[in-house]
């Protein structure tokens, strides 16, 4: 064994790899296996700094939508914006990540058996309103839950970031054994980490039952976290004195959006933003959603003129007149730009107010939660994802705002 150790360390020094059994290995490092005789060991290499304007973060959420998972889906709906907030607070070299989210459902007998009872609900997208819309449309129905198959499909179908140091992760939640189906979960998990995608497994139920059902092994194979939750635990939303101000500012923020595209698309974007506000409000989470909308993680480049202008000032002048908001269609190019700049300034002011009030709200919330911290030790989907995300992003070089 000493001979093998010397061989691997020497190789590390020569080609720059850091073996897995040496300290400070990131969850997002690329792993390669070196074989010598009957022994195996692993080594990892650090990825180079991101070369784009913003670091890439791709997250696929794989949800079991069989009959017993109504509670899980409710938690996903209720805690989406809490989860997104974790990414909004993360920065790498001062840059907030470009977040894309995908959703798959599996284990639903209403889906085709020929496709393994799997459906890609949303491709990786930065349109977070679309993700919210998809979650609220999910319905449970009894079926067979094939974890290996849905992980394999997520790796195969999604256009995962090619950014050298992108954070790419799967979060799969369910309650049946991880071993079901014709696709070997071990091969699927190894293929995932081979593509640089960490697999985090969330077992809905008893910790040891999840271990016995191979959920823990699946996470370990793909360098992820194994977590267990109570999918039937109700998410508690605490009312805060800042909520009324935040809701008012959110309405004002919505008025700064200048949706563009065909008339139907413009209407669809505006309506969906309002519907997802309503959906969040119905579950007591509008303040968290509004706080997220005040961050750069909530972006609508290619849909909204202000966000598009912030990224590419010339793009606004290239849009056809009939695809602009009606109020801008008859304006000259210079007047059009002036209007967009004015709206951008107004949005920045509202976002600054929202961020300040949201910070006050968070401080109040933290104080209130500390009073009831010992009343329940149940972990929900949002808690589990948040814990894993913070740990893995830090390992990938991100820092979190306080």
Automatic annotation (TrEMBL):
Residue span(s) of domain VWFA: 58-206
SMART domains assigned to the protein according to its UniProt record, in alphabetical order: VWA (SM00327)
Domain of life of the source: Bacteria
Record's signal peptide: none
Name of the protein described by the UniProt record: von Willebrand factor type A domain protein
Organism: Novipirellula galeiformis
């Amino acid at each position: 064994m000493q001979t093998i150790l010397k061989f691997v360390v020497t190789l590390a020094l020569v080609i720059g790899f850091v073996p897995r059994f040496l300290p400070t290995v990131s969850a997002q490092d690329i792993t390669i296996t070196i074989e010598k005789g009957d022994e195996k060991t692993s080594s990892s290499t650090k990825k180079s700094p991101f070369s784009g304007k913003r670091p890439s973060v791709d997250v696929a959420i794989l949800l079991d939508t069989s009959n017993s998972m109504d509670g899980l889906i409710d938690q996903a709906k209720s805690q989406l914006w809490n989860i997104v907030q974790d990414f909004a607070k993360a920065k790498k070299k001062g840059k907030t990540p470009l977040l894309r989210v995908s959703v798959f459902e599996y284990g639903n007998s209403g889906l085709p058996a020929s496709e393994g009872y799997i459906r890609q609900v949303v491709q990786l997208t930065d349109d977070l309103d679309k993700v919210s819309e998809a979650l609220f449309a999910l319905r449970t129905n009894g079926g067979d839950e094939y974890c290996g198959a849905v992980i394999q499909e997520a790796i195969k179908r999604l256009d995962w970031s090619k950014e050298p140091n992108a954070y790419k992760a799967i979060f799969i939640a369910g309650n049946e054994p991880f071993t079901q189906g014709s696709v070997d979960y071990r091969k699927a998990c190894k293929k995932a980490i081979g593509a640089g995608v960490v697999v985090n497994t969330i077992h809905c139920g008893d910790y040891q039952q999840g271990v016995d059902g191979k959920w823990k092994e699946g996470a370990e194979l793909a360098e992820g976290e194994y977590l267990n939750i109570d999918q039937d635990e109700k998410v508690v939303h605490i009312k805060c004195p800042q909520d009324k101000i935040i809701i008012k500012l959110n309405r004002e923020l919505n008025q700064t959006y200048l949706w563009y595209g065909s008339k139907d698309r413009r209407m669809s974007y505006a309506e969906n933003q309002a519907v997802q506000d309503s959906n969040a409000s119905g579950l007591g989470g509008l303040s968290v959603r509004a706080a997220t909308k005040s961050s750069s993680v909530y972006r609508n480049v290619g849909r909204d003129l202000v966000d598009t202008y912030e990224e590419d000032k010339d793009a606004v002048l290239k849009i056809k007149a009939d695809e602009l908001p009606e109020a801008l269609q008859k304006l000259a190019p210079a007047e059009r730009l002036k209007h967009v700049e004015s709206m951008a300034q107004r949005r920045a002011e509202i976002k600054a107010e929202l961020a300040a009030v949201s910070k006050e709200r968070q401080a109040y919330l933290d104080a209130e939660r500390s009073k009831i911290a010992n009343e329940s030790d149940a972990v929900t989907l949002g808690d589990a994802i948040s814990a894993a995300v913070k740990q893995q992003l830090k390992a990938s070089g991100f820092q979190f705002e306080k």
